[in-house]
Amino acid sequence: MQQQLQSLEVKQGISGYSDTQEELERVSAIKSELDEMKGRTLDDMSEMVKKLNSVIAEKKSALAPVIKELRPLRQNCQELTQEYEEKKAQYDSCAAGLESNRSKLEQEVRGLREENAQEESRYHLINCMKQVIEMQMQRASDEMKAYVSADLQERRKAVREQYTRNILEQENLGKKLREKQKAVRESHGPNMKQMTMWCDLQQLMECKKQCYLKAQNQVSIGQVIQEGGEDRLVL
């Protein structure tokens, strides 16, 4: 029957009409199902919206007292925030001023400490100089007392007397050395002549010794003749 229907459609010039009709019917069925599903979905959505509106209304009713209490608190928070900003600005300004003053004070303290260290060093230096001067004055006073003292032993302890004695001793020593130098210069010539004669005598004695030793060995290299208490070597 399907084949006859298709042949008839071909003869009538409406080939594929039955297929199209079936497709349209199928599409129409699908559309009906979709419309039904859409209707159910819309109903579900409407029900859900109602439930949500009901929940929102309940939440609003529950939150209404809280919101009512929150409004003055929010206003109070804004006022406190504004006051905080003002106080913070004042604090920052005051802190900046205090920091500047602190830096100046620290710099001043460093300068005073350096000045104190310098003055302390100067104090110790002056104190040492004072002690040295006191010692020098004490020595000068003791020297003056010893110098003008009637006691001879005490006077000899004076530095001036000691230096005077040292000067006299050195002058006497220099005088003796000059005299000794003069004597050495005057006796230099005779002493050198005497030393030369002594060297000649030493050579002669050495020669006599060698001659004696040769004579003992019976090797005649000369003859020693004694006449008038003198010895003569005859070669």
Automatic annotation (TrEMBL):
Swiss-Prot/TrEMBL keywords: Coiled coil
Coiled coil location: 70-122
Recorded superkingdom: Eukaryota
InterPro entries tied to this protein: IFT81
Protein name per its UniProtKB record: IFT81 protein
Annotated source species: Polyodon spathula
Upper taxonomic lineage: Eukaryota, Metazoa, Chordata, Craniata, Vertebrata
